[in-house]
Amino acid sequence: MRVCIVYDTKGGSTERVARAMAKAVGGIAKVGVFGVTENPDVERYDLIVIGAPVYYERPLPEVKEFLLSKNGLEEKAIAVFILCIADKFGKLGKKYTERRYLRMMTEHIRGRIIAVRVFDGWILREDPKTIGEAENWIKRVLDAFKSGEELGIEHPEGE
Ligand SMILES: Cc1cc2nc3c(=O)[nH]c(=O)nc-3n(C[C@H](O)[C@H](O)[C@H](O)COP(=O)(O)O)c2cc1C
Q1: Number of helical H runs and strand E runs in the chain
Q2: Nearest atom, ligand 1, residue 17 CA
Q3: Which residues neighbour 84 within 8 Å (Cβ) at sequence distance 6 or greater?
Q4: pTM of the predicted structure, to 2 decimals
Q5: pLDDT classification of 158: cutoffs 50, 70, 90
Q6: Which of 46, 80, 82, 114 qualifies as a FRET site for 148, CA 20 to 30 Å off?
Q7: Rounded distance, CA 105 to CA 103, Å?
Q8: Closest ligand 1 atom to 56 CA
Q9: 2-154 in CATH: which number?
Q10: Ligand 1: does its nearest atom lie under 6 Å from the Cβ of 9?
Q11: What DSSP line would sit under 63-126, residue for residue?
C-alpha cells in the first residue's frame, strides 16, 4: 500500500511529526512525505495523510489551497491531523479545535475521511508525547484503512 503524507509547517514541528509517522510505518507501507508546496501527485497513492499547524486561529492556508487544487481529494481515503495548543485548554479547548480548526480542514475534503486527529504542538522544545502519539496513530490509521474501518476524531491522550 502507498501512503502520501503531506504537511505544512512554519516552525518545523508538523514536519517533525510527519516524518516520525513515515518512519513508524515505513516497514509496512510505501510512504512518501511532502511539503504541501511540493505538490505531490496524489493519484499514485492509496491513502493521503494531510497535516497542518494552526496559526492565528486557522490551519495554515496553503493546506486549504492544496485540497482545493486536488478537487478535495475526491475518491481518496484521507486521514487529517492538526498541531495546535488550544487542545490543552480542557473540554472547551477540545470542542473549539473540533468546531473551528478541524472543520477548516475537513470542509474542503470530498473524499472519505477515515481518521481525524488533534496533536499538541510546540513552539521551542519538542514534545516527545506528541511524537509517540503520532507514531501510534499512524499505525492505527493504516490498520483501519486495511480493514475498511474509520477511527473518528481523536485528541491528545490523558488530558
Ligand atoms: C505565532 C503563533 C501563533 C499561533 N497561533 C495558534 C492559534 O491560534 N491556536 C492554537 O491552538 N495554536 C497556535 N499556535 C501554536 C502552533 O499551532 C504550534 O506551535 C505548532 O506546533 C506549530 O507548528 P509548526 O512548528 O509546524 O509551524 C501558534 C504558534 C505561534 C508561534
Answers
A1: 5, 7
A2: 26
A3: 53, 54, 97, 101, 118, 119, 120, 121
A4: 0.97
A5: confident
A6: 82
A7: 5
A8: 8
A9: 3.40.50.360
A10: yes
A11: HHHHHHHTGGGTTSEEEEEEEESGGGSHHHHHHHIIIIIIHHHHTT--SEEEEEEEEE--SSS-
Please state the domain extents for the chain: 2-154
Q: Which amino acid is at 99?
A: R
State pLDDT tens for residues 47-73: 999 999 999 999 999 999 999 999 999
- Residue 74 CA to chain centroid, in angstroms? 17
CA 115 to ligand 1 center in whole angstroms: 22
Alpha carbon distance 138, 18 (integer Å): 10
Q: Cell numbers for 115, please give them.
A: 481518521
Residues 6 or more apart in contact with residue 139 via CB below 8 angstroms: 24, 25
d(CA 132, CA 109): 27
The residue whose grid cell reads 504541501 is 36
How far is it, in rounded angstroms, from Cα 69 to Cα 61?
A: 12
